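Objective 1.3, modelling of assemblies. Example input:
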Amino acid sequence: MTFDLGSTTALWWAVIFSGFYHGINPGMGWPLAVSAGLMERKHSALPKALGLLAFGHLLAMLAILLPFSLMTALLIWEKEIRIGAGLLVIAMGIYLLINRQHPRFLARVHPAKLALWSFLAAMAHGAGLMLVPIYLQICKIGVHDIGHQAASTLMQGNLVNAVTVAFIHTLAMTFAGGIFATVIYFWLGLKFLSKTWFNLDIIWAISLILVGVFGIYSAYFGH
Amino acid sequence: MNMKPDPTFHATAQLAMQAPVENYGFTVMLSPDGSQSDGIAVVDLNPESKTYGTIVHQVIVPNKGDEFHHFGWNACSSSLSPLTGHAFLERRYLIVPGIRSSRIYIIDVKEPLKAKIHKTIEPEEIFAKTGYSRPHTIHCGPEGIYVSTLGGGGEDGTDGPPGIFIMDCQTFEIIGQYEMDRGKQDKHYDFWWNLPQDYMVSSEWGLPPQFENGVVPDDLLSNKYGHSIHFWDLRKRKNIQTMDFGENYQMALEIRPAHDPSKSYGFCGVVVDTTNLQGAIFTWWRDDDGVWQSKKTITIDPVPADADDLPELLKGFGAVPPLVTDIDLSLDDKYLYVACWGLGEMHQYDVSDPMNPVLAGKVELGGIVAHHKHPNGKDFAYGPQMVEISRDGKRVYWTNSLYSTWDDQFYPNDEGGQMVMARVGKNGEFKLDKDFYIDFPNGYRSHQIRLEGGDCSTDSFCYPNV
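Predicted structure (tokens):
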């Protein structure tokens, strides 16, 4: 990893910021951590719940990023893959923009299965997809840095990249969500739960579209 | 869709108690013989208003013979469930089923004075999509709107068991049956739940032939009405335990779980114990092994009476049964109000210790033999029946009709619809408000009451009190 390159640094910051962004979205689960702490009547339940939510989120990121990391081995299709990924992310954004229905199936998960819930919530929101164009751009820059190496070495590097992206993103997400949950649990009280709860549906869907557009743009005009 | 959660959604019951008080009430207007169309009366409950304590608007539906009974909101505090992660529904529509016609009206009450019908769901659609008939209790929950029904398929509703169906909370499309494994459940009435603890409790009245044309004395005396409650895994939609109170406990109706979701207990009212005519309340709870238990914690005795003063149905017994037909629990889980429709009494129990309720107050009004008058000097038809408590617990509203054909059997000489209110003082003193008395328009009776912004039998809270 080379952070001195301007655009690489920017990309890694994008990974971190997307984590913050996912973290503050109540749809990614911080109210569940507050609820867990209160229902179990002990403080330790809150960090435990955050941990489980983080685990589910991490799995959801990996479930999306790993297949793409394998595909990056197909160097000749590199551009097509990036355009395809961009279109997929845009499609998800448009789908979420049109389909504004109450997410019924998430309500069928048992309240104690936090990791499963978090995994499904992230999948349903296309949270992993939001990272794909950023991730592919990171891999792309990596290729230029490393030069022409054997496909296997490259794939290995991209695999490490995928895990790193998922990990850093989830860490940032947990940090941001954790702050919300902790402040409401310990200081502000539940009155602020409904006060701080904003509808991010449209902004979220537009974010996906923008990230997808960025992916396609960089496939054509990037490094 | 809102950008922020509806201000009438509250994370805890405590926060709901501190919220602004109700300005309007919505009450069922029932034409018992179907000669007029049923409706919803909008009642002004703002004491500062010139029209306080009167009906200020009526939504009269186009059909006749629907028989309105219970109704509920499209969305409530359950929208703040951390699991849905999506709190942006609006508490705006009343879901009003006709239990005789199986038709459902969706009424838009965003502007209470201009409340109007938003959508009508015809009976055929309900029959086709659910296999159920005679929709009754409404609750808003994790998967949308849940509607309990009293009948199965077929003309008389006995083709298959009744149950619950789910409706989309935005489009009001009927999604289908709730149950995946109903176990022994073959009758239905009320249901409610504890969302974080993921359980639901349902109760039993009787099948349509047992109530539509009046109570069937032979069925009652041979204990054929419902006497069990069912515990469900809410999200798995599975009956996990059926609890039989005993066959003499006829008609286990209203289910009232503690509002604080960290508590695992609640109450169920039983209309009549056929061995002694008592009314009864059972407390149910989950023990340390996760098994549901129950205990009879309140009994209300019948009052001896002259056969001459009794309706045909009761002459042989020489007594008035209390007939516990509705119960309601205040949001602080402190007071349980129990309607004794036969006696003409509204009881207030302190249930701070749910295993040892204490009778704290009592209001006498109406009654089969007693005929208690209202403090304003007017008569009160029938007895206290559907009861609703304000969120802050300071006002208790109730109406008088039980069910068209049953009113006529138990009170053959009474007619009319009334809504009254009792006040609850700082230390729980429970007294009728002399100045609050609404006489319903000619030919109409009244039933369930819903309060603007939620009340004590609508909202489900997803976070414990602090």
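Residues 13-451 of chain B form a domain with the Methylamine Dehydrogenase; Chain H fold (CATH 2.130.10.10).
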